[in-house]
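User: Structure with FE2/S2 (inorganic) cluster, tokens only please.
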Amino acid sequence: MKEKDEISRRDFMKVATWSIGGLIGLGWGIPAIAYVASPAWKSEQAQVWIRLGATSKVELGVPTLFKVKVKRQTGWIVNEEELSVYVLTEDGRNYIAMSNVCTHLGCRVRWIAEQDRFFCPCHNGVFDQQGNVVSGPPPRPLNQYQVKVEDGQLFILGG
Ligand code: FES
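Assistant:
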């Protein structure tokens, strides 16, 4: 009977030690894992205003190409990528900003001034000056960005 009591006291100490150790481990481990893993759980990028350049660069009625470098974060990886945006204005006050990424399979479109059209080299997609589909396989117009002008500078909303 006495030996059985000692064993059970010893077992109790073991269980108590492991329990306290486990609780301390959880107390440190869960916040540490959450801190390390949190970037991977972020699925949405914050939208920020990206400065393209001066409005004076845009010629009336001609889509004008702006190229800017933006940083994108995916999980822990930060990449810098170049964004190419065509800006069009008819009156110098209202602007539209279009992505140069074709809405078919993502190739880069180019503005060909002599033909007054955007052309996609991959499958001959053609878009008009406002980015509407004229012919070819693209299913919809070129994507547009929200635009604002501050102190003569063009900004687009992107992430
Ligand atoms: S990717 Fe542009 S037409 Fe196919």
